[in-house]
Amino acid sequence: PPPLLEPLFPPQPGASPGFAERVRQHKVRLEWVRAEPAGLRGAVRVLNLAYEKVVSVRYTLNAWASCAEAAATYQPPGPADGITDRFAFLLPLGAAAAAADTALEFAVRYRVAGAEYWDNNEGKNYRLRGRQRVPPAAGPPQDPDSSAWIHFI
């Protein structure tokens, strides 16, 4: 089976206590991520400071020797709190994510009303590493009749 990306952080920060307060305080926070065959999919929550806003994810697979940026798209309807918006992203990692030694790092950028806010996991960036999937363990072959009772007369 192909390797998968394993987050080195809780993959559902939006489910942790105090998440809404962190969004209010920092203006932008990663809500969740999920590794898929197409790449890394996730959602970001931002404080609704103005109608026009741009959310993107800057990422690298080579320790920032180079990087790419993927735009996040607005996801209606917005969260029920009325003060935040949700944006979704997909980092198309392709063949690079198929290597078991992949190390992905990313940070989220939120540009609104002439200001720029970042969520970089408290200065550590969000990190994921490639991990080879373990195939199901193959035990010794089983005799289909091994559990059957044999009765001799």
Automatic annotation (TrEMBL):
Output this protein's name.
Answer: PPR3D phosphatase
Q: Which InterPro entries match?
A: CBM21_dom, CBM21_dom_sf, PP1_regulatory_subunit_3
Task: Identify the domain of life.
Answer: Eukaryota
Q: What is the lineage of its organism?
A: Eukaryota, Metazoa, Chordata, Craniata, Vertebrata
- Domain spans labelled CBM21: 20-129
Per the UniProt entry, what are the Gene Ontology biological process annotations, in alphabetical order? regulation of glycogen biosynthetic process
Q: Give one GO term, molecular function aspect.
A: protein phosphatase 1 binding
**Source organism (scientific name):** Orthonyx spaldingii (Chowchilla)
GO annotations of cellular component type? protein phosphatase type 1 complex
